[in-house]
Amino acid sequence: WGNFNSPLLWDVFAISTYFSVSTVFWFMGLIPDFAMIRDRAKTPWTKKIYTFLAFGWGGKAKHWQRFEELSLVLAGLATPLVFSVHTTVSFDFATSVIKGWHSTIYPPYFVAGAIFSGFAMVQTLLLIARKVCHLEEYITMYHIEIMNIVIVLTGGMVTVAYATEYFIGWYSGSRFEDFTYLSPGAAVGPYWWAFWSLIICNLVVPASFWFKKARTNIIWTFIVALIINIGMWFERFDIIVINLSRDYLPGSWTMFKPTIIDVGVYLGTIGFFSVLFLLYARTFPVIAQAELKSILKISGETYKAKEGDEHH
After folding, report:
1. Is 263 part of a structural domain of the chain?
2. Do 287 and 191 fall into the same domain?
3. Dist CA 171 CA 155 (whole Å)
4. Alpha-carbon span 155 to 229, nearest angstrom
5. Which residue of 5, 150, 180, 181 pairs with 238 in a disulfide if CB–CB is 3.0 to 4.6 A?
6. How many domains does the chain have?
């Protein structure tokens, strides 16, 4: 039996709640689009599937009213859950007595890191979908630049958290704190490559987004998003591996050596995620058609050009 006194039980409730609300929010937003696909289906089998997914959507005024109300409620629930779930996950580390983990900065640090890495991952997938599906008219440079601004702001929060961890470890005067994942010992120790990969990928490279020329460059944006994804992987690696490889008993210090199973499972998760994303893009709308139609008239280039001609 599992240990129900373990902090890992907190993860079960936090992640399951977050997953449930996110799934309902995601599916509910797709219902008008499912109805659109249902009405355009060419085969009986496809029509049956999307009829079931559309939940009887008819586009009536009452349907839209309930749709908007539910969207507002779920958005209100999902927003604080972003903070609560990552705070709860950080408690798994912060409530332990392992050096490098027992830190009060972990909750805000994990929240900022989640938004930072989340936007980078979305940016990575967004730019690929934008190019492959020819969505340049809908996903404009304005959207990409705004996302880059969020990345650089949350990256600044992560930088402050890194600096705080480093400074407090040094200021404490504890010899054991010199072997945590953010310490002078980590910078020159056996895991120096992981430490500097973290610093370069999460601090140095994203700082380029302070300049508008970098924020509005598609290729550079894609490269930076990939680098941030790599850097956040190194952050997890450093937090787990470096802190556990150097405990309070020097005689038990060791180096982590991944097995072929470890590498296979890790690569398998990347492949599994990629397959799910491609299946989604193949069967569901990549962007919300219903929301797009509601703003296209006033935000589209054709409408703007027409308005400009009328004013002249």
Report:
1. no
2. no
3. 24
4. 12
5. 181
6. 3
Check whether residue 30 and residue 170 sit in a common domain: no
Number of H helices, E strands in the chain: 13, 0
| Residue entry with tokens 């994804």 | 229
Q: Cβ(206)–Cβ(224) under 8 Å?
A: yes
Structure tokens at 47: 């029509």
Q: Is residue 262 part of a domain?
A: no
Q: Are 214 and 208 in contact (CB under 8 A)?
A: yes
* Distance, CA of 199 to CA of 155 (rounded, Å): 11
Q: Cα(125)–Cα(142) distance, rounded to whole angstroms?
A: 17
Domain that holds residue 43: 1-84
Structure pTM? 0.85
Give the span between the Cα atoms of 138 and 302, in whole angstroms. Answer: 12
| Residue type present at position 213 | K
Q: Which two tokens stand for residue 251?
A: 């005689």
Can you give the pLDDT at residue 96? 86
Ordered DSSP codes for 125-159: HHHHHHHHTT-TTTS-HHHHHHHHHHHHHHHHHHH
